[in-house]
Design a protein that fits this description.
About 45% of the residues lie in helices and about 15% in strands. It is built from five helices and ten strands; from the N terminus they run H-H-H-E-E-H-E-H-E-E-E-E-E-E-E. It is elongated and about 110 Å long. GO terms for molecular function: carbohydrate binding; growth factor activity.
């Protein structure tokens, strides 16, 4: 409504500025000078107010669009928070279940493990023994888990280094291709494998030594050894 009022005022100002008594014989140049004479200060002010009002309307429209966009973003954020909370509640019991080891097993490197220190069995018999208690020989892939296993084995064995310890690696299928019983490739080199006679890197036993052991005389670093050797099983729950 304000726009129409201002426009009417401008037209009235223009009409008032026209000369009266023009007839059909009026000089064209005189008529042009009359119609194109400078606008009055009142018309200029009205035009400025009209432009200002137009900018205010556009600004109000932009603010409304921004408010609607912000509301939409808030709705999306609330929806994502609901999804996050639902996933957190679902994963929490699973994480708690993984960290609760039973039946003498202890949490070592994120897995439930049990060193059967009083058992001395071959590698194959050690697997069977672990399977009978719902586990299998231990495996690992990273240095952090390996370090946790070494700490656990040394703690259970005590200072006298009572027994070497079987883990679940072998190259019995393809010579010198060492894999875990899970089918994954075993890590090679330092810090996992030890040395024989202080200089020969393990594994080095050839076709006569196809099973992996944490060797007590080399600070429990891995060695390859005959699978018929008698050692203590390190059992791990793999699920």
């Amino acid at each position: 409504m304000a726009l129409f009022v201002l426009l009417a005022a401008m037209l009235a100002g223009v009409a008032a500025s026209l000369p009266s008594g023009l007839d059909e014989k009026a000089d064209v140049s005189t008529l042009q000078r009359s119609l194109l004479s400078p606008l009055s200060s009142e018309c200029v002010n009205n035009l400025a107010e009209l432009l200002l009002l137009r900018q205010e309307v556009k600004l109000a429209e932009a603010v409304e669009v921004g408010r609607e966009s912000l509301s939409g973003l808030n709705d999306i954020g609330a929806y994502l928070r609901e999804i996050r909370d639902a996933l957190t509640q679902r994963e929490a019991p699973q994480e708690e279940e993984r960290t609760q080891c039973t039946g003498g097993f202890r949490l070592v490197g994120g897995k439930c493990m049990l060193l059967l220190l009083n058992e001395r069995k071959t590698w194959g018999d050690s697997r069977i023994h672990c399977q009978q208690i719902g586990a299998d020989l231990a495996t690992f892939q990273d240095a952090g888990t390996f370090a946790a296993i070494l700490d656990y084995v040394k703690e259970i064995n005590g200072p006298d280094k009572g027994a070497s310890v079987w883990v679940g690696g072998s190259d019995g299928v393809v010579e010198d291709v060492w894999t875990w019983l899970t089918g994954e490739y075993m890590p090679r080199g330092s810090p996992f494998w030890g040395t024989r006679n202080n200089y020969t890197p393990e594994p080095s036993g050839g076709t006569n030594e196809n099973c992996s052991i944490l060797y007590k005389t080399d600070y429990y670093y891995m060695h390859d050894i005959s699978c018929t050797f008698a050692a203590a099983p390190l059992c791990m729950k793999h699920n």
